[in-house]
From TrEMBL:
Subunit structure comment from the entry: Homodecamer; pentamer of dimers.
Cofactor note: Binds 1 Mg(2+) ion per subunit.
Organism: Roseovarius tolerans
Domain of life where this protein originates: Bacteria
Protein name per the record: 3-methyl-2-oxobutanoate hydroxymethyltransferase
Similarity section: Belongs to the PanB family.
Pathways involved: Cofactor biosynthesis; (R)-pantothenate biosynthesis; (R)-pantoate from 3-methyl-2-oxobutanoate: step 1/2
InterPro entries per record: Pantoate_hydroxy_MeTrfase, Pyrv/PenolPyrv_kinase-like_dom, Pyrv_kinase-like_dom_sf
Amino acid sequence: QKSAPLPDDIRAMKGGTPIVSLTAYTTPMAQMMDEHCDFVLVGDSVGMVLHGLPSTLGVTMEMMILHGQAVARGLSRAMMVVDMPFGSYEESPAQAFRNAAKLMAETGAAAVKLEGGRHMAETIGFLVARGVPVMAHIGLTPQSINTLGGYKVQGRGAASEALVADARAVDQAGAFSVVLEKVPATLADEITAAISIPTIGIGASAGCDGQILVVDDMLGLFTAFKPKFVKRYGNLGADGEAAITAYAEEVRSRRFPAPEHVFSDKAPKA
Ligand code: KIV
Ligand code: NA
């Protein structure tokens, strides 16, 4: 059995076979994807996907630690990255280090991910110098939804230069990879060519060095809304509702439990 890749191994995949990644929040989901993904992200999307929050802003360190621990128990060969939640790193490099160290120590994550480009470069450098590998996340950064003014495509037209500058800044600061979310495909390709670290696309381009999706989106389990960049590879939500409908009917008609699901009065012979 191959041991889990380290952040430097992911970095070395720049320009090669695309890096495969998904989010996970629970042990069984992590087990399902362990053999197939290079890294698994415990995303703060957990707040919306599993906890019914309206955005990622209400996600806490405690939630990230609990879900990180659950995911870690399901992984043996994929690398695990944990998202730093809103409010846990923006204040200062020292605050970011304290919380990143806590996330890594309590979950066993190999790296953390945080949102931001040029304005987070100092923090990224501070963390990397102190043993915390950092994945950056630029473009649409959902923790800034209230200042971005909605979940719009980022970096169109004249705004593209700022995004290229963000990508270069996180590369130079020492991030080992960068997520590009919801940016024009041509810009994602330009950034991928311009920087030395792998780009991980979500709503970006097939030309990125890797791809990521929210697992509940691609399985059709999260159906409150479907961004254009999501491809549904399954319909587990619909399958699940059909199963629950069948169960409810069988209970109400006393067809469940059947004889094979109940116990006799006599203990079986040993
Ligand atoms: O929280 C998340 O799921 C993410 C990915 C979509 C990149 O940050
Ligand atoms: Na996230």
